[in-house]
Amino acid sequence: MARGILATLAAVSLLALWPATPAAAHGGEVVLDVAGDGATGVTVRATYKQDGHPVDDRVLRLVLNASGEGGRRVGPVQLNPANEGQGFYSSGAVLTPGAWTVVITSPAPNPGRAEARVEARAAQTAPAPEAAPEAPAGGGTRYGWAAGAAVLLGAVIALALAGRRHTRTRADR
């Protein structure tokens, strides 16, 4: 009987550890996917090479070095975690418009290296808002007249109710 209980306890203990095995697969080399951010920066997505999961259990020390047309160079620049999700990093505006070869490296204990060609573009600005239409020469809009009429009607009703109330109190005396 005691052997059966011990065997059951051992099996339950092993099963309790079962869900932890995928997390144990994290670690080792990382895969870095590099892309331009649509302007003059770079974004990087970091996943574990072994299981393809995002690197969400630690902050990597990713370093950007870039070379561009005409001998232009940028780096080393350390990348920061981005708000886009787990395992994403961004450089901010570090490149000037033009074609760049970007190299991202990650040191041990999670080594990784990626190289990509990025076309940096000048940041675009939103178009200016359209000017609001001018009020008519009469000094208001039709909505202004409707609001004024509603306020006037409310005041007339309030005065009428107050007058009725005042009349009743005199008649009751």
Feature tags:
173 residues, alpha+beta, Immunoglobulin-like, four-stranded antiparallel β-sheet, 3 helices, 8 strands, 28% strand, elongated
Question: What does it look like?
Answer:
This protein is an alpha+beta fold and 173 residues long. The protein has a domain at 27-120: Immunoglobulin-like (Sandwich), CATH 2.60.40. 29% of the residues lie in helices and 28% in strands. The chain has helices at residues 2-17, 21-24, 142-171, and strands at 30-36, 42-48, 63-68, 73-78, 80-81, 88-90, 98-106, 112-120. Strands 1-2-6-5 form a four-stranded antiparallel β-sheet, with no helix packed on it. Strands 4-3-7-8 form a four-stranded antiparallel β-sheet, with no helix packed on it. A hairpin with a 6-residue loop joins strand 5 (80-81) and strand 6.
Write the layout of secondary structure elements.
Elements: H1 2-17, H2 21-24, E1 30-36, E2 42-48, E3 63-68, E4 73-78, E5 80-81, E6 88-90, E7 98-106, E8 112-120, H3 142-171
Antiparallel strand pairs: 1-2, 2-6, 3-4, 3-7, 5-6, 7-8
Can you describe this structure in just a few lines?
It contains 3 helices and 8 strands. The protein has 173 residues and is an alpha+beta fold.
